[in-house]
Every structure is written in structure tokens, then in C-alpha cells.
Design goal:
By secondary structure, this protein is of the alpha+beta class. It is built from six helices and six strands, in the order ααββββααββαα.
Length: 159
């Protein structure tokens, strides 16, 4: 994974080659238009991140109280661009939903564990990405993460 050292989203975008910048900006616009209340945009893990800020979830990621709880990310990697959406993989039926929606849109899905890779903007059904982003309210993300952390501490599998 290629991580940017950019401190702001603007800096991140400025450092991209013009063709990648255009595609990332188009996906970013869709994400921002559909991002539920409670999430914020900023730089996280060297990518454009969308997360629950500490003011809403003071426990933070890994309950460290320092890192906002990630929800989604957008990045330009060496060989592709990528939308990470942790919520889809945490939510029951989320992975099947995204597979079905790509198929309905007539697009080939290149998916990893929590990412959707694409080489060109035309490879990505933007309406599906928008609906995927809009799907999970910040409160649900916090509740799913608390459930995960509780199960992890007690040694039980998360259902």
C-alpha cells in the first residue's frame, strides 16, 4: 500500500497525477454527497478518510482515545485506485449486497477484504458507491464496533 504524507485532503489531491486526480475527485464528490451525518473527512492512514470523530466516539479506534473510528477511505495506489468501506464488511449481508449491485450495474467487481479497486472511473458504478456510503449511520458504525470490541475482549466471535 502506498501511503501519502499529505497532511490535508487538498495536499493529497494536488500530489496526484491529473488523470488520477480527476477520478478521485469524482468519487470523493459522490462520497461527500452521500456521507451520513456524524462522519467527517480528513487524512487518515495516508489516505482520504471518512470517520467518526473523537467528539462523537471518544473511545476511538482500538479504544485508544486518539484515533477517529474509520468508516471509509479513498486512495490512489500504485496500480489502481480504491474505495475502502469497512462498514460493508462488518454489516451482515453487506458483501453480498455490493456484489449484487455491481452485477446489476454491469460492472466487474475487483474486491478485497474491505476494498473495491478500480483502474478508471468508468469501472465504478458511482450510484452504487453513493448508496453504499449512505447505508450505515455513524451510530450504527459505533454500535457495531463496540460489539466487535466486546466480543474480542471476551474471546467470543462477533455475530
Amino acid at each position: 500500500m502506498v501511503q501519502s504524507k499529505a497532511q490535508t485532503v487538498s495536499q493529497y489531491l494536488q500530489k496526484l497525477p491529473s488523470d488520477r486526480r480527476k477520478d478521485i475527485e469524482a468519487v470523493r464528490k459522490v462520497i461527500l454527497k452521500n456521507l451520513p451525518k456524524g462522519y467527517e473527512e480528513g487524512m487518515q492512514y495516508g489516505m482520504i478518510g471518512y470517520y467518526v470523530p473523537l467528539k462523537l466516539y471518544p473511545k476511538g479506534y482500538a479504544h485508544d482515545g486518539k484515533t477517529p473510528l474509520p468508516y471509509a477511505s479513498l486512495a490512489s495506489q500504485k496500480n489502481y485506485m480504491v474505495v475502502y468501506h469497512m462498514g460493508l464488511y462488518s454489516r451482515s449481508g453487506g458483501e453480498k449486497w455490493i456484489r449484487d449491485e455491481f452485477k446489476k450495474a454491469g460492472k466487474k467487481l475487483d474486491m478485497g477484504k474491505s476494498c473495491i479497486r478500480f483502474k478508471k472511473l468508468k469501472d465504478l458504478p458511482l450510484d452504487v458507491i453513493g448508496r453504499a456510503i449512505a447505508m450505515i449511520p455513524a451510530k450504527e458504525t459505533m454500535a457495531m464496533y463496540d460489539q466487535y470490541m466486546t466480543a474480542r475482549k471476551t474471546g467470543r466471535k462477533n455475530k
